[in-house]
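Subject: sequence -> structure tokens, single chain

Hey, anyone have a minute? Need the predicted structure for the following. Not urgent.
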Amino acid sequence: MNLDDLALKLQNMHQRVALLQRQSQQQKAQEDIELFAAVLQEVNLALEELQIANQDLQQQNKELFNTQQDLVAQRQRYQELFEEVPDAYLVTDTKGLIQEANSATTILLNISKSFLLGELLEIYVLEKELIAFHLKLTHLRDRAEIPDWKIQEWEVNLQPRNRTPIIAAVKVVAIRNQYSKLVGLRWLFRDISESKRTQAKLQYAEEAMRQALAKERQFSDLKSRLLTITSHEFRTPLATIHSSAELLEYYRHLWNEERQNTHLRRIQASVMHITQLLNDLLVLSQNETGKLELNPTPLNLVEFCRDLLEELQQSDRSQHAIVFSGECQCTEVNLDAKLLRQILSNLFSNCLKYSPIGSTVKFSVTTANDQAILQTQDSGIGIPPSDIEHIFEPFHRASNAGNIPGMGLGMSIVKQAVDLHGGEITVESAIGAGTTFTVILPFSRNLQVNREAQINLTM
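Reply:
Had a minute. Here:
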């Protein structure tokens, strides 16, 4: 019996006692006695039920007290666990207002708990990530009605007080009331800055290893191609030297001087061709091993160009008309003579090689604004537009080169030498109308070495 039923019974008894009092003056004594006895019996039953109810109430009070003690113990245990978590642990409302924070949080953010509580969590997020953090928080609130939403994870850059920013892994758990309504959020932050740095180092090492392997494969392919092309390119001039020397050995006493000189010039031209091939291979080897360097020295630019043209003209045997012009404000400049020879000899040799016999080849050198401007112009076969963008790549030869000898290294070497000078090279060409190369080299006293080019050469 509950207390409400007992109260109702007592009320009924009170009414019956009152009725008994009113009737005691009208009924006989015997009837009064019987009625009074019945009332007393009901009172006795009511008292017994009241005693039982009181015992039940005491038992409930005892159970409630024990429950309260359990709740206090659980709360204490929760607080201990909350503080013992090694990672930063916070509790906020749905807007990110900090309500609870453990000791690890104060260490992570370098601020005392009294300053943390009541503050918005976003003030410790790096400024550049604030918008993204707001969107994440809004997304969490928008998903509040989804019952299966339990935990969300991402990474965020935090700004501890008076310290460098850190990268933290974030876990967010929903706090719901008995009606499954979202009432708060639990946050777990773990500093992963060191692991990120280690991961970055590993990725860098892996990338360096991949590049090294790719470079090794590239170098292996280069050696294979170099061996194939070299054997092919050297065979022709060596065969010419061998046949001309053999003919001179057996028939020079039967030939006149002009015929002998013809074979001697063939030998000389073949030797110069082989020398140029060897020079190209040497430059390529120095480039691949990172030994190709810029060593500028004072030189008379006009005289240097004239002497080089005379050498090339002798090997050409006057098959082309060579026009040279030099207009220099200063005749002595600081440039790398070895690299300059590579630039000019390759450019001018190509002019002669790809121009028809009897055509004119022009070469000019000028100086202005502490720069040397070198230009070669021919009226040869020209370079197809599809080949121009690849013209400076090693072993690339224009699609219209045909049987004209060459290894495809000359223009690559020219580009490397120009880059080492910190200069630039441009090309203009049209099929059947010839090609013009323009090289601009800054004088070394104003030269700031293109470090990127040097790094590329040594990689």
